[in-house]
Amino acid sequence: MTVPAAGATSPAPGPARARSTAAAVARLVAWRVAGAVVLLAVISVLVFLLTYLTPGNIIKNITGIRPASPKLVAALRREYGLNEPLVTQYLHWLGRFVQGNFGRSIEDQTSVAQLFSERVGVTLLLCGLAFALAVLVSVPLGVMAAARAGGLIDRLISVGSVVSLSAPAFAAGLILLYVFSYYLPWFPSSGAGQGFLDTLYHLTLPAITLAVGVGAYIVRLTRTAMVRELQSDYVTFARARGLRDRRVLATALRNGIIPVITTMGLVLSYLVGATILVETVFTLPGLGLLLQSSVVFKDFPVVQFLALFFAAVIVLVTLAVDLSYLALDPNWRRQLTR
Amino acid sequence: MTADVLTSVAAPAANARKRRRPVTLVTCLIILGLALFAALFGHLVFPNATQVNILQAKLPPGSPGHLLGTDELGRDVFAISVAGAASTLVGPLIVAGGAMIVGTFFGLLAGFRQGPTDFVLSRITDLLLALPVILLGVVVAGLFGASYWWTTLLLIVTFAPYDIRIVRSGVIEQVTKPYVEAARLLHLSSWRIMFRHLLVNLWPLERTNFLLNYANAIIAMSALSFLGVGVQEGTANWGRQLIDGEQVLFSNPLVSITPAVLIVVVACAVNLLADALNSREGKGRGR
Amino acid sequence: MKLAEQAREDVRADDLIVAGPAGQIVRNLSFSIPLGQTLGIVGESGSGKSLTAKAVSGLLPAGLHATGSVVIAGTKVVLPGSAAAWQRLRGPAVTLLLQDPFTSLSPMHRCGDQIAWTLRAKARNSRLPRAEIQAQVMQHLEEVNLPATVARQYPGELSGGMRQRVAIAAALAASPRLLIADEPTTALDAPNQRDVLDLLAGLQREHGMAMVVISHDLGLVRGVADQVLVMYAGSVVEQGPTAAVLGTPVHPYTAGLRASDPPMDRRLERLVVIPGRVPEPGEQTTGCRFAARCLFAADACRVAEPPLEPVADGRLVACFVSRGPITEVAPAVVDERWERDTSVQAVIEVRDLTKAFGGRPALREVSIEIREGESVGIVGESGSGKTTLARCIAGLERQDNGQILFRGTPLTRHNRTASQVQVVFQDPYSALNPRLRVGAALSEALRGGTAARRGTTQEPPRRTASELLEMVGLPAAFARRYPAELSGGERQRVAIARSLAPAPDLLICDESVSALDVSVQAQILNLLGDLRRELGLTILFISHDLAVVRQISDAIYIISGGRIVESGLTRKVLRTPQQDYTRHLISAVAH
User: Fold this and answer.
1) Of B109, B172, C318, C454, which cross-links C308 as Cys (Cβ 3.0–4.6 Å)?
2) What domains does chain A contain, in order, with CATH numbers?
3) Nearest-by-CA chain A residue for B8
4) Do A4 and C581 touch (CB under 8 A)?
């Protein structure tokens, strides 16, 4: 009796299948990377146009407060290719950029690259510290709140997270600064210190400030994701056949990890932009303050470089999050071959 | 009802939660009511809040006539805080409203039409989402010299993509449901389907989103004010007061801490209100 | 001595009550199952059968609590029971198998691992070596007739039937004394249902377990249970040996349930229905819960609730009026002599329709014909392409190749109107806009649809929303209600009314009764039959259920793997099927 097979919806696993999955994954990765590159290119155009869109004479923007003799003006026009069509100028600029020539700060003529390298350490360390702190504290809190949903711990965590959410980095930073740097002088109030350990010490309070605000997002989203998973049928079935609570929780977490990762990506992107706030409160010599002072001074090369840097970091983080789904979700990988 | 599956919880917990809800809701509404009052009538209650009075400068908290002390220009902290409510709270309201309108319109289009419209809108959204809000504000406002209202407009542009995303995914979730397909079969106009069928069912989402946007806008705008964007030095504005007061942080900390606490309290009230409305909605729904 | 031991091995439940914030949901349920036997619990939605299963395994959701006692494997648990006690019992004493195989397994873990978890949990503190676990996993897979390769696969790669077997393997790995299967085959297609049930019965014998099978399907329960318990709105109405209870029911509800089941061997003029609807859980009624819908209701029934009492041949019945088997009047059978009238124009003609979704073919050169006034059925399993076909005809999907002709004219994206084809969908709970009152939804449908016809020669009769409601048997007062205030059956009627508003030439019913209880299903099928007679409606009925299609369609197409396998007059195809696949489908249904 020939009966159409009511069996598997996809052919049994085998080498041919593994190859087609790998090919589909590679295609997707290539597609996503290409998308990121395009995005960066578009942003670079916008950044490039900053000099030209800003009100005021272009030459004035470039020369700044230095006196502009006609000879200097002509020289600048040649150097910056201002007589050529916009597109060519962009390509030249892009070309220089890609080769590592980021220009010089108008303010004091130091190379942008040098300014950058002096300050990038502080900002990256601050972000990294804040992120690590946020994730290591928030994810367990979110899981705990979901596991005891409706109980006292859950309510405390929920209320706590709403309060932290509502505390912008600068407000929290100021309060922390006052309490822990002045009232109880446990931490320094400004500067980044010398040497690695000292820098860590100086960055503790700023990192906590940043972590408090973003950590709350992670707590809430982890809780929501976990509550949803814990209400699923597979959790009920797991308990129904006698699996231990710990095993059940681990299963739920594995299923709920994807929205949590998405949130972590968003949080990291946000952190990158928010460092400027704590750098202001705690007077840290980081990229954020550099950006702010350059903006005030209309120091275009610096502003352009930093803008592109921050955008690139965010685009890369988003790309990494996107690609992580491929690694984490076997069903997503399989759907690609359809 | 959130199922507590790892510890068996008997009925009493659920009831306790029900009884507690109105307290949170009412407290939030009271706080927001006061904030609104201050925003609308602050300048009537304290017409001279921003008047400089050097003789009274840097008075500590508890000084006669100045409960919270004065700042470095002699202005009463309490008075200027009340006066600052307007600047801090009105702009963000417009940001939240504007972002919601833009987000709803384009989110509906993208989710319902799909195809090329969706593709283009999603790519634009991706682009805008890649730009960090605060830094964008600093750069654009710093270079172009933005005023308070231009800053508001800038924030609408940066907040809108989040709303577009949220509305779009809400729409996509509803669009496959039979009642929408039935509307399509009846050949109702697209606009009618989008507004009469999709939007009304997204209303709870919209309301929560608006409130969360408002809280975030308050925070974002005061962050920008803190950095000097859109607001002049010395203005009655909580974010601005925060940075202005850092100079006297160690003689009268309340100059900075008062506006800091106020921002946290109001933003918190809005967030809790959104939460309370959300869970209330979740309980009331039948099938 | 032997008897006492035997009795200790029984699974018992005594005076089980489940209550929630709204009141009692399940009342006074008691049963006793000897090891090796099966108890069937039968009821429609709202009967409380699933909650009973959860109460007996300590998995009630928060907010609900149970009282009474349960005895399993010699251990007595006084409900609600502590978390620790249930942790010990679940697995080795009692295991619950859930209904939906698509959600009962974790999508992120391999099947073999999920079975292994049960094994490790069973081993408690002793750590079993990996090889040992692997070997046992393979054994369990073999037991459920699955190949060893399944162990490395994720649930998403398997069909519904295979997933359910993995779930069974995972459940049995705990070696429970009592296995509770909650609607184990409802989410599966007919041929799969048969296989899974046979598998469960076989495994029960091998393992010597007691089993509880919960279902709304009487035929299924009859085939597998030794005793049966019939529930209605939280109360047990009849209980006893299966053959007696389901063969010669005493309680009017049981009789009504049995009669509502559409037969496969003949076509009835009207299906027997139980009028009215099931009360909401917690809805308070005085007297018998079924009195409002009972044909035999007497005054005594409305005053006090009848107790469960023994009647003849070992069963318990809760009824004041009926004390012996109810003799049913055989419903009138349709004298089937209908033949297709080929002179009548085809309303819809489908020629060589082909459609694929991203490389996966859904329809392969399908051709069908629906003539004016006919009722045509399309039967197939899930994934056969029947829904895709319906959606293409309706214009919700666009075909890759082939034509759809409406009265001879090919349909394109631009020449479709609302008055050609309308659809009644499967899920009544999402078929209506929750924010629109019934009356407003119908008015909108009337306005939208007729606008398309204006200017043509065919003006549809001017109807109002009230008239539409009357046509589908709902009171005009319903116009003011929101969908949330209606039951599933009532919502489906409104959906039908809405689809009739533009006076369509063809009405497609896509699994329109599949999500409804049997008694409500009968009401809707009768309604469709009435509408067809009154309005001369042409109907295309899509279903996986052969018995239902038998009752409503004159002609039938059998579809599988995107191709039409067999077609013809319904009575002929089902009595003398020509194709193996058709025979396979028919045999799977017959209990």
Assistant:
1) C318
2) 119-297 (1.10.3720.10)
3) A148
4) yes
Q: Nearest residue of B to residue C500 by CA position? A: B186
Positive or negative, the CA dihedral B169, B170, B175, B178 is positive
C500: chain B residues, CB-CB within 8 Å:
none
Given an 8 Å threshold on Cβ–Cβ distance, is A10 in contact with C57?
Answer: no
Q: For each of chain A's 338 residues, which pLDDT tens digit applies?
A: 333 333 334 444 556 666 777 787 888 888 888 888 888 888 888 888 877 777 666 666 666 666 767 787 777 777 666 667 778 778 877 888 788 777 777 767 778 888 888 888 889 999 999 999 999 999 999 999 998 888 888 989 988 998 888 888 888 888 888 888 877 777 877 777 777 788 888 888 899 999 988 899 899 999 999 999 999 999 999 999 989 889 999 999 999 888 889 888 888 988 988 888 889 888 888 898 888 888 877 777 888 888 888 888 988 898 888 888 888 888 877 777 65
Q: Is C129 helix (H, G, I), strand (E, B) or coil?
A: coil
Q: Cβ A174–B257 below 8 Å, yes or no?
A: yes
Predicted TM-score (pTM) of this structure: 0.84
Query: How far off is chain B from A207, nearest CA to CA, in Å?
Result: 17
C51, C102 in Cβ contact below 8 A? Answer: no
Chain B: partners with 3+ C-beta pairs within 8 Å: A, C
- Residue C230 pairs in a beta bridge with C42, C238
Chain A residues within an 8 Å CB radius of B253:
178, 182
Domains of chain B: 45-286 (1.10.3720.10)
Q: Is A123 exposed, middle or buried (0-12, 13-18, 19+ CB in 10 A)?
A: buried
Nearest to C358 among A237, A242, A338 (CB): A338
Buried b (16+ CB within 10 A) or exposed e, A47-80: bbebbeebeeeeeebbbeeeeeeeeeeeeeeeeb
Asked if residues C353 and C363 have their Cβ atoms less than 8 Å apart, the reply is yes
- DSSP letter assigned to residue B198: I
Contact residues on chain A for B247, CB-CB shorter than 8 A:
none
Q: B226 vs A178: CB contact, 8 Å cut-off?
A: no
Interchain contact, B257 vs A148, CB within 8 Å: no
DSSP annotation of B66: B
Contact status of C249 with chain B (Cβ, < 8 Å): no
Domains of chain C: 33-48+81-225 (3.40.50.300), 250-331 (no CATH), 346-434+503-588 (3.40.50.300)
Test B186 with C418 for CB contact under 8 angstroms. yes
What one-character DSSP code corresponds to residue C126? S
Neighbours of chain A (3+ CB pairs under 8 A): B, C
B142 vs A272, A295, A315: nearest CB:
A295
Backbone torsion region of residue C124, taken as left when φ is above 0, otherwise alpha when ψ lies between -120 and 50, otherwise beta:
left
Closest CB to A242: pick one of C91, C106, C583. Answer: C91
Instruction: Assign C406 to helix, strand or coil.
Output: strand
Nearest CA in chain B to A310: B132
Residue B179 parent element (H or E): helix B178-185
- Sign for the CA dihedral angle at C39, C43, C47, C49 comes to positive
The closest of B178, B197, B193, B196 to C423, measured between CA atoms, is: B178
Rounded to whole angstroms, what are the CA distances from B164 to A132, B95, B103, B133? 30, 14, 4, 16
Q: Write the residue in B134, B142, B267 that is nearest to A274 by C-beta.
A: B134
